[in-house]
Amino acid sequence: MTRLSMKTIKKLNEKDLHSKIQETRSELAKLRVDASKGTLRKESGKLKPLRHDIARMLTQMTEIKKKK
Fold first, then answer.
1. What is the SS3 assignment for 9-67?
2. CA 31 to CA 53: how far, in whole Å?
3. Residue 24 and residue 54 in contact, taking contact as beta carbons nearer than 8 Å
4. What contacts 24+ positions apart, CB below 8 Å, involve 58-63?
5. What is the DSSP letter of 5?
């Protein structure tokens, strides 16, 4: 999965944003399982960017809810 810029995140509506958050969280969970097993080598640098992307999306969700 590629990094999401804030510009891209702001274009998403609430429904798409929610599904994207769920998708990213599941990918993060898979990577964490691999990391705990010790089989995560090449993708070890993907954990932190995924966490940051989730935080950006949650921030955008909060802004959308405040506008309503």
1. HHHCCHHHHHHHHHHHHHHHHHHHHHHHHCCCCCCHHHHHHHHHHHHHHHHHHHHHHHH
2. 15
3. yes
4. 58/21, 60/6, 60/9, 60/10, 60/12, 60/17, 61/14, 61/17, 61/18, 61/21
5. P
Contact between 35 and 46 under an 8 Å Cβ cutoff? The reply is: no
How does the average pLDDT of the chain come out, rounded? Answer: 92
pLDDT tens track for 22-45:
999 999 999 999 999 988 888 889
DSSP state of 1: -
Provide, rounded to the nearest whole percent, the portion of the chain with pLDDT above 70. 99
Neighbours of 28 (CB within 10 A): 18
